[in-house]
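Data deposition worksheet. Section B asks for the primary sequence of the deposited chain exactly as it was used as input, without tags or linkers unless they were present during the calculation. Section C holds the resulting structure in token form. Section D is free text for depositor observations; keep each observation to a single sentence. Incomplete worksheets are returned to the depositor.
Section A, Depositor: J.P.
Section B:
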Amino acid sequence: MNKSLKSVTCFMPSIGKSAPLRRNYTCIPIPCAPRSTLIASVAIPGCAIASPILTLTSCARPCSNILACALPLFQMIRPRGYPGSITQLRRVVAELRPPHGEAFLRLRTFPGEQAQADWAHFGEVAIGRARRRLSGFVLTLSYSRALWLEFFLDQSLENFLLGHVHAFQDWGGAPRSVETDNLRSVVLERRGDAIHFHPRFLELSAHYHFATRPCRPARGNEKGRVERAIQYVRHSFFAARPFTTLTDFNRQALDWRNQVAHQRPWPGDDSRTVAQVFEEEKPRLLPLPAHPFSCDLIRTVRADKTLWVRFDLNDYSVPPRALGRALTLAASPTRVRLLDGATEIASHPRSYDRHELVEDPTHRQALLEQKRKALGSTPSGRLAALVPESPAFLQAAFERGESIPRLTAQLLRLLDDYGAAELAATLREALDRHTPRLSSVAFILARRHRQRRQRAPLPVNLSRRPDLENFTVSNPSLEAYDELTQDPEEEPDPEQ
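Section C:
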């Protein structure tokens, strides 16, 4: 070997660590020229110094990342006097040693033979106080390119199964095999060709009689049809598309699938559309079973002392008789059901917010019948039930030293005089003005009535007659007054 050449091992600078991170780069002989020679070559950056190195790199092993190759070269020639930037070096590396792509064979399948499934992440959406990950499930038939697109708020196993079920129902049949990634919803463990499948996904494949074929790790090209379909969805459907709810977004996705995606030319023959080829493929699909596969999330829960069950960051009410008993929770994307054995005792719409109380009014009413001092039986409970703004008002008043029992009694009297709607609007205005006091509430009520040119109701003092507070006056019959106008000695007319 020439003595002017010296072997150099490449080290990458550490990222957040004190020790350098060693990478397996090809060791390249670096010509060691005198420093005066290197400085003299500054006139043409990259020619006198970088060219001999890059000539040798063209004989090294191919690298698919140009930037990763240019960085170690830049670190080697910079201490030797190279004055240029790494951007210039990257341009030269890209010209001398472009990345080498891998060649693939074109996949050809029979009608109804194969489908490919995958998830795609589409950012986050805000639902109340929660932020949920918006994910799209895509299932594509490899022959006709017909696809199924459905959006969910997570990539759970239940949603992955439900996406398959909805796709098969929409197509009117199932393919004979499904290509997937090695995601946890399908593969629990894999060593070479030995695969430990998820039992729930095996139940789905047995129910619809299709074979599951996970592609090899890091070989996404084996399911290139669905990867290309996801790119098509991103560019053609998702970009700059507004939506209000998840149901509305899935409705738009279905319309786009039918009107745009299935009307594009079929890659195998430009004279036919994807929809036309799909109609030819539908008879080749496997027939569906009599009943769809159940994809609900099943979990065992117990109600706490306040008769609430926590699920997915929210609380759902149960009847009082379910206290302390083991219940079965069955959750779908739209409903949350609670079962005691085989009997359904509660059903709620599913909430994707966080810390939300989803309550059935009948459960509260049953609790009120059992407990005398439950919510609504105490003065503060009655006030909170009729005026939802009162708890925040009382809390703010308590922080300013007000007496809560006395303030609650006075607010109840105002509630009887002015009504719940008027008192609620007044409490909101008092909170906005940061004046949670009874005098402020009375002033706002009087001002609102002056603006409407209404007379304020006169207060009635029943302190001396507490028995009249709940006194009810029935409407008398007015026929008794007609009898007073008649002469008692006059005989009634038989014709009348």
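Section D:
Residues 1-48, 55-64 have pLDDT under 50 and may be disordered.
Residues 114-284 form a domain with the Nucleotidyltransferase; domain 5 fold (CATH 3.30.420.10).
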